[in-house]
Amino acid sequence: GGPERKSATPPEMEAYQTQIHFCRKLGYSEDSICKVLEKLGQGALTNDVLSELIKMGDRAGLVGDEATSSSPKLIARGCSFVESPEEKPETEDKDADPSSNLRSIIIDASNVAMSHGNKEVFSCRGILLAAQWFWDRGHRDIKAIVPSWRKEMSRPDTPITDQHLLEELEKKRILVYTPSRQLNGKRVVCYDDRYIVKLAYDIDGIIVSNDNYRDLQSEKPEWKRFIEQKLLMYSFVNDRFMPPDDPLGRRGPILDNFLRKKPNIPEHKRHICPYGKKCTYGSKCKFYHPERSNHSQLSVADELRAKTKISSAK
Predict the structure, then answer these.
(1) What are the GO cellular component annotations (predicted)?
(2) CA-to-CA distance for 180 and 147, rounded, in angstroms?
């Protein structure tokens, strides 16, 4: 262990540091990497080191302990993507795609990162955790809005952690930077809150933030109504992203329906059509037809027309 490291020759020490650097980039903690290297020896092959780390189950980049989840991870072990929205195979029928009924998500990344960093640090991992939560639910149109100056090095007055995650999320077209520039040595930034609200309003998406945007609510009445209806607040419990089950209060929709374009209505709450199979309204009937759940929604008249066409074709 310790003595081996002290007596290491410069080339061995360089190889040791390279191993640590490589595994750190994959999201493993330095403590775990050192334990594995002490166990296998400093000359261990990278594949053997990774194999041992996987056995240890140190998966810092995964959200929660969902290693067995069927949903693909945005960033596995911290910085290596598994599947992106644009790479998803399009073999499925679009009507059958569950993500088509899910609303677009606009994350106020500055608000989320500072919240995860306890309002002291801009924690990029918080952005990943929020994006991952929506990804795991099936959302594929997720955008996190960040001022472009957050690409700059961490400074004592603006500390930032896990900055490499910004680059990875940008590669996946999830992170979007708002413009900024230097003018006479001073940083000129666009108001990212306006970007967030305008984008969400234009695409009828959900804003993820603990900010009420009071200044923007007073700018336009339609923005005020939109923010009141489409703002999703949240909490972080350590590394767990937790939005409320009732985003608009006890009388509003449950979270699952809040995030959908068309709400799912539980069968026991649906009003069954009193005419049953004799109903002639077909898909236009506003009542629920349990007998049609897996069958045609055509009206009786339309079904008769369809049958007539088939028989005449024969």
Answers:
(1) cytoplasmic ribonucleoprotein granule; nucleus
(2) 7
Q: Would you call 91 helix, strand, or coil by DSSP?
A: coil
Sign of CA dihedral 234, 130, 118, 77: positive
CATH architecture of 85-258: 3-Layer(aba) Sandwich (3.40)
The pTM of the full predicted model, rounded to 2 decimals, is: 0.58
DSSP string for residues in 129-191: HHHHHHHHHT---EEEEEEGGGGSPPBTTB-EE-THHHHHHHHTT-EEEEPEEEETTEEEE--
Domain ranges of the chain: 2-56, 85-258, 268-313
Report residue 169 as tokens: 């999320």
Using DSSP bridges, classify how beta strands 142-147 and 240-242 pair: parallel, antiparallel or unpaired.
unpaired
- pLDDT of 174 > 80? The answer is yes
Task: Judge whether residue 23 has pLDDT over 60.
Answer: yes
pLDDT value at 276 more than 60: yes
* Per-residue pLDDT reduced to its tens digit, 125-157: 999 999 999 999 999 999 999 998 888 888 888
Contacts of 90 (CB under 8 A, 6+ apart): none
Distance, in Å, from the CA atom of 118 to the CA atom of 183, rounded to the nearest integer, reads: 32
